[in-house]
């Protein structure tokens, strides 16, 4: 990374990594929370519809925050900052189950395919950037 033009100074790079880890950790926590709400809905503690609403809302929030944070970062490091997008794929399952709980039949299949394709594309980008750096 040091050979990149416009590389960040070490202190700024450390700050960026810390903030990326906070975003990734917060998103992962919300993914676990969405799953917990769905489990609570299945257990009868809350209604399935309310659990689905919470899961879909959390999935939307995590998706928007993670993609915006990733895109707002330094362009030179976009391929190296894929960890910021990880929570999107962690919360995709609970989000899709939440959509199903709200009555979204075929939409769940379409969204599931889109999430899977996006994950494969991002992993391909990350893999190719690692292979070309070697």
Question: Can you walk me through this structure?
Answer:
The model has no long low-confidence stretch (mean pLDDT 83). This protein has helices at 10-43, 48-72, 86-101, 105-133. It is mainly α and 134 residues long. α1 packs antiparallel against α2 (48-72), α2 (48-72) packs antiparallel against α3 and α3 packs antiparallel against α4 (105-133). Helices cover 78% and strands 0% of the residues. The protein has one domain. It has 4 helices and no strands.
End-to-end Cα distance, whole Å, is 11 Å
**Which percent bin holds the helix content?**
over 70%
Q: How many helices does DSSP assign?
A: 4
What structural class is derived from the secondary structure elements? mainly alpha
Rg calc: 17 Å
Which features would summarize this protein structure in a list?
4 helices, 134 residues, elongated, mainly alpha
């Amino acid at each position: 990374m040091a050979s990149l033009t416009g590389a960040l100074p070490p202190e700024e790079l450390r700050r960026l990594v810390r903030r990326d880890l906070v975003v990734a950790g917060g998103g992962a926590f919300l993914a676990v929370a969405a799953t917990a709400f769905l489990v609570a809905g299945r257990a009868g503690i809350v209604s399935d519809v309310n659990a689905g609403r919470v899961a879909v809302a959390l999935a939307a929030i995590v998706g928007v925050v993670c993609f915006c944070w990733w895109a707002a970062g330094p362009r030179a490091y976009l391929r190296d900052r894929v960890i910021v997008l990880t929570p999107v794929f962690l919360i995709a399952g609970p989000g899709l189950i939440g959509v199903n709980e709200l009555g979204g039949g075929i939409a769940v299949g379409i969204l599931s395919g889109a999430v899977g394709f996006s994950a494969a594309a991002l992993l391909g980008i990350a893999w190719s950037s690692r292979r070309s750096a070697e």
